[in-house]
Design a protein that fits this description.
380 residues, mainly alpha, two-stranded antiparallel sheet
């Protein structure tokens, strides 16, 4: 019996002991739940704050990118012709300031930014703008050196007087400034023609593009440089003064390329016989030098004693009377093999063909035919 009573008691104690170990008070359980909830709220607020900050940064970045894109890519600029002169050695900041002040770009800082990204070298010169374009195009033009230039065409046979007039008409300096300067620049051809008194004959006919503010010295140098390039191709190395002088006479006497070697042969044949060349263009040039050319040659002009009057003086004139092109230079270097001593226009057309003669009698007949054609055409 005692044994059967004691066993249940021991079992009860164990259960009570176990129950005590696992039990908790209601107040303690509430406090723990509140702490957990607060922690969760804090973590949620921190998450929302970080997300908000991130979204704000993204928004600011997008606005910034949009602003830069607007400054750089949306066309801007003047609606009328505007020029900007960038001086050599100008800094990027200075160039950007000039462009903004002239209304070419919206912001100098945007131009600086593009320059920093592109890492290109900006070139000095005068630039012309006349319509809105993206800032990137402005940058490319200046980096490429797309400066504003004026085209000036020097035709074959043009004299220094003709060239000076064309330059003035193009808005590049004055006529007299060029005439004065080219006379001072004879050193440019001293090795070719030590006796040159001007650059006549050495200003090669071509179409040139000059900045509006190009100096007469720069223009003359460009034309002489072109002459040197062309005569080098032709192989002209000796007797340059004589060849260029004859070529200038040929250039002014005929506009027909096929006849240039024949005209050159007439001059060579007459020189060999010590006969006066008797060429009107040379007489006219002499009168131009005296500022006495009246636009038409008169008998008084033929009698006027100037160094260029080839009726009164045998041999070549003192120097070239015009600036010859390639065909005339080639004809002077390689004249035709002929016995002709005379030539005259075969008709009233000054751009037409000529009649060549070996004897004075033949020439007289050709001259009579020319005068008849002129009279019929209503000429002098």
């Amino acid at each position: 019996m005692p044994l059967s009573v004691s066993l249940p008691v021991q079992s009860l104690e164990v259960q009570e002991s176990a129950g005590l170990e696992s039990a908790s008070y209601p107040g303690e359980e509430y406090s723990a739940g509140m702490a957990t909830s607060r922690n969760r709220t804090k973590r949620k607020k921190k998450g929302l704050g970080a997300a908000g900050t991130f979204l704000a940064l993204v928004f600011v970045a997008l606005v910034g990118v949009g602003a830069v894109a607007w400054l750089v890519f949306v066309p801007f600029g003047p609606l009328t012709e505007t020029f900007v002169q960038i001086a050599p050695g100008s800094s990027t900041t200075r160039i950007a300031q000039q462009l903004e002040s002239a209304g070419i770009v919206r912001s100098q800082f945007a131009f600086d930014l593009v320059r920093w990204v592109k890492r290109g070298k900006l070139k000095a010169g005068e630039y012309r703008f006349d319509h809105p374009v993206p800032l990137t195009e402005i940058y490319v033009r200046i980096a490429r050196g797309d400066v504003y230039t004026v085209a000036v065409t020097v035709p074959e046979g043009a004299s220094i007087f003709d060239i000076a007039t064309r330059l003035e008409q193009a808005g590049i300096g004055t006529r007299q400034d060029f005439l004065d300067e080219q006379a001072r620049q004879t050193g440019l051809v001293a090795d070719l023609d030590p006796q040159a008194k001007s650059l006549e004959g050495y200003l090669f006919p071509d179409t040139y593009r000059f900045p509006r503010k190009a100096t007469p010295a720069q223009i003359a140098a460009a034309m002489v440089r072109r002459f040197r390039q062309m005569v080098e191709q032709l192989g002209l190395k000796e007797n340059v003064h004589e060849v260029v002088t004859i070529a200038s006479l040929v250039e002014r006497e005929t506009a027909v390329d096929a006849e240039r070697p024949l005209v050159a042969s007439v001059f060579e044949n007459r020189l060999a016989k010590h006969m006066p060349l008797m060429t009107d263009p040379s007489v006219i040039y002499g009168r131009e030098l005296e500022h006495q050319w009246r636009g038409t040659i008169y008998e008084s002009d033929l009698k006027r004693d100037t160094p260029y009057n080839t009726y009164l003086h045998a041999g070549l004139p003192p120097g070239p009377i015009a600036n010859p092109g390639i065909p005339a230079l080639r004809a002077a270097m390689q004249p035709a093999n002929s016995k002709f001593l005379y030539f005259v226009a075969a008709g009233a057309d000054p751009q037409g063909h000529s009649h060549f003669s070996e004897t004075l009698e033949e020439h007289a007949q050709a001259v009579a035919g020319y005068r008849h054609a002129m009279k019929k055409a209503g000429g002098r």
